[in-house]
Design goal:
alpha/beta; Rossmann fold; seven-stranded mixed beta sheet; 7 strands; 44% helix; 21% strand; globular
């Protein structure tokens, strides 16, 4: 089982263990989690800002609404669970989105998002490289936040109890993968903002650390906030 498969299964086991009758997945894409939920007999709906993905999922018979995490198109306590499957770090206003999730959830909000164990050298380099890549993404207009601490999520949700799980299967990044991601910077090297952020210098420092300790891919943070 790959690391991504392990993290996905842990997240879905967390959902199944709560035995919800219904859930709303925020930033649901084309509805993969909704399909899984329906296979368990759970009534599932999703919210997705990308109109093309909404159309694709709707064509498959899934209940997906166009909308944003900051203004969920549902009344208070509409679903047992509200979920974020690797979507929270793409939300424009995280605090507002989590408050909306708590409003719409009857029982809990369940989140999985990337996480690095900074006590492990290869993970610390991975975290640094992840931040470099996300800085590059933000230069292109993408909403792509750095890893979100569990404490920040808990504070924004303000629930009755919080369950936090840190999952990590150390997966080394190859030289080819490093070069591929670094190559995404090529179209932006001449821009003033790229230079002002010292992107080339930071990449060189990360590459030196990569050659020394290697890089391992992100783990996963699973947070369940009970109401």
């Amino acid at each position: 089982m790959t690391a991504d498969e392990l993290y996905q299964q842990a997240f879905r086991d967390e959902i199944a263990g709560l035995k919800p009758a219904s859930l709303c997945d925020v930033g649901c894409g084309t509805g993969t989690l909704l399909t899984y939920a329906r296979s368990l007999g759970i009534t599932a709906a999703g919210v997705e800002p990308d109109a093309a993905k909404v159309a694709d999922a709707s064509a498959l018979g899934l209940d997906i609404r166009a909308g944003t995490a900051e203004a969920l198109p549902f009344p208070d306590a509409a679903f047992d669970l509200v979920t974020f499957e690797n979507s929270l770090h793409h939300v424009t206003e995280i605090g507002r989105a989590l408050a909306e999730a708590m409003r719409v959830a009857r029982r809990a909000v369940v989140i999985v998002d990337p996480w690095f164990d900074l006590s492990i050298p290869s993970q610390a380099v991975g975290d640094r490289y992840e931040r470099w890549m996300k800085t590059l993404d933000r230069m292109t207009g993408m909403v792509h936040w750095d890893p979100i601490p569990a404490g920040e999520i808990a504070a924004d949700c303000n629930g009755s109890a919080v369950i936090v799980r840190h999952l990590l299967q150390l997966t080394p990044m190859s030289n080819e993968a490093f070069d591929y991601f670094a190559g995404r910077a090529q179209p932006h090297k001449g821009s003033a903002i790229y230079k002002a952020n010292g992107m080339d210098q930071e990449l060189a420092a990360i590459q030196a650390a990569f050659q020394s300790t290697g890089i391992t891919e992100a783990g996963a943070l699973v947070v369940t906030v009970l109401k």
